[in-house]
Predict the 3D structure of the following.
Amino acid sequence: MAGRGRPRKNAVTPKKIALENVEFTQMKDVKFDPSLFTPIKTGTIVDSVLSNEGGIFPGTNTVVIGDPGVGKSTVLLDLLSNFQSKGKRVLFVSGEMNEIDMFGYVKRYPKFGRIPILFMQNYASNPQSAIEKSLDQGFDVVLIDSWAEVNDMVQEENGWTRKKAESWLLDLMDKHNKAGNERNKHTAFINIQQMTKGGDFAGSNRIKHMTTAMAHLKFDGRGRDALRYMSFSKNRRGDVGEKIYFSLFRSGNVQYSFEQV
């Protein structure tokens, strides 16, 4: 008698690549560019939570998620602008905003007006080439808002699978982490990412493995009086769990404090 239920799928055996030899690494033999260990600083108290040495490091990747409306774009543009004020070359890749949207931010925070921006909506017919050519110019810090939006644009335009588009962007980040650009800059990336309903990071395990730090921007409480804070759940260069509060009520700069204000 034939079995009932859904037919069983044939197991697919993944292809294995034959290796002639496996090499081990001893870190005493590894040499790095000394600039990789000089942190990029904002000059604010935020530096102390970004890493134990203060600031973010060249060639690293930070993923940020947050509650809706908490101010992810504002806080990260504030960091980016502060990096720029310290002489660092920065880029904002905007997959969600257009020039009109951004103009509203600049009215409240005039310093954002000095940040070079790649508006992806202006390159909807060839987003892949626009990003690749932009990053080839070489930057110290690149903010991508958001990871999912940029992936979706490239996936749709090229007819790729989500996995292929994601792999393309991860490989591109890895290339520029390792200074594969005209200025030999070890680019640090800050990526705004989607989160699951449970408040965790969405995306493949490869994103998590390539990520140096994972930050959360959250409301502490509810209603108009709710406080806002940043905290890290993963940070290979710093501590986790510490809260730094921020306020968006004053124009010009985001206000940060370790106290609940």
Remarks:
- Residues 162-177 form the longest helix (16 residues).
- DSSP finds seven helices and nine strands in the chain.
- The first strand starts at residue 61 and ends at 66.
